[in-house]
Amino acid sequence: MDRTVVLITGCSSGIGLHLALRLASDPSRSFKVYATLRDLGAQGPLWEAAQSRGCPPGSLETLQLDVRDADSVAAARARVTEGRVDVLVCNAGRGLLGPLEAHEAGAVGSVLDVNVAGTVRTLQAFLPDMKRRRSGRILVTGSFGGLMGLPFNAVYCASKFAIEGLCESLAVLLPPFGVHVSLIECGPVRTAFQDKLEGGPGGALNGADAETRDLFSRYQRHLERILREAAQDPEEVTEVFLAALRDPRPALRYFCTERFLPLVRMRLADPSGRGYVAAMHRA
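RE: above sequence
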């Protein structure tokens, strides 16, 4: 029986790396995984983990793919030897934290290019073949930051809100083609994501006023507590991806945690936004 061909972006660490390993080592041996990385020089940890997990030969391959470069995406697609991708996982992403006025233009552009335009480039490369074959699953790494605005995450939330609109629009369109889009809505996860923030934690803080800098310092302490108390293990998150992949009636959204759903419901319940804004400011 043909294996399910899965291509995942952003596999140098974090969710992408753990998902690639989870699928490649699945006891059913039903997956062929193409783990893609912007820099193949960073693939060492993936292969070390694959060896320790006992991934069968031929279950995992790495490809160079930079979502910022349409030619790189096309080249990766051409190197998939099966000639098809059954499941596309758009996972590559970057974070940006700090006061808006502290962000340099290059950092803002980079986050939007990777998180939004990069996802679009990837979909443009792989979606046409899925539509022709009238078969395919697309899983996109979402975030609670795409469902509600978070202080000092304005640009990151903007990018994730954009992904929500992108995926919801496609989810409406694609079922007649046999293609299904799902967002995997993640909360805090124990990965190196916070260590790889574009422009560092906070950006150029001297560009912000003293009161905003004080608020940001308080927010950082709040964030550290949330990460200690609520961050999930990547393995737990990968099981949600697997459940979405196997669901016979795919949903648009799958939630990795229910901890933040009351805030999402509060935001939706009051279209004026007053209640949500007040609650989040108090928090």
